[in-house]
């Protein structure tokens, strides 16, 4: 869908399009050279050609190292969620360990998730800032509802905070199905919904349309695999609801199995983002 919109550099553009109501792709000329502006690349600082043409220095949050470290932290959080899921699925592995070992592992994994999600939000909040000695103080959270990337990063960050509460409260779960659903299931459900919204927004930011057509780009695979992981987390949270009565074992196993698969998808997507960051550095 074509849209008329002003590009960040205020250059006359030849094309501006994206998934309504956002603009995620612009084509324009500068100094006689055709340039392509992509919302995701702009947000993450993956625009070496335009920066070289403008003779600007990359901000610290727009460097390959920043993106690589952010991907590594996501990998650590994903691995801990995978480990927690395995411990929950196979109780024999926790023989000799406290009953709450798996839940502590989940909570430990939620901390890197929140850390990396904030780094991503900070990056999106300062996407339009160049790095100079006289630059203004960076935005800590920002507010840019016209940017699909910023909304995606913001919803993901809030979702990770919800999972902090979800996993912490599960370490010593309260008695009674109502309290368990209130302090454990509900925050997990909120986090999963926000993850799913964030992942879809990141997907359309990269594909520039509301469709699922595969693209031969590492960025597409990153957001597509991440979206798949969020769907698995959504399933896990849904079946984790504690009923008024006996909680069937199949529901617990299904929840943990989907948690493992979702975390595995996040791990793969994060690892690919590290590869993307290294590639962008060359």
From TrEMBL:
Keyword Transmembrane: yes
Keyword annotations: Membrane, Transmembrane, Transmembrane helix
Coiled-coil spans in chain: none
Record carries keyword Transport: no
A Pfam family hit: YrhK
Domain YrhK: 65-123
Transmembrane segments annotated in the record for this chain: 68-93, 100-121, 184-206, 218-242, 257-275
Protein name: YrhK domain-containing protein
Organism encoding this protein: Martelella mediterranea DSM 17316
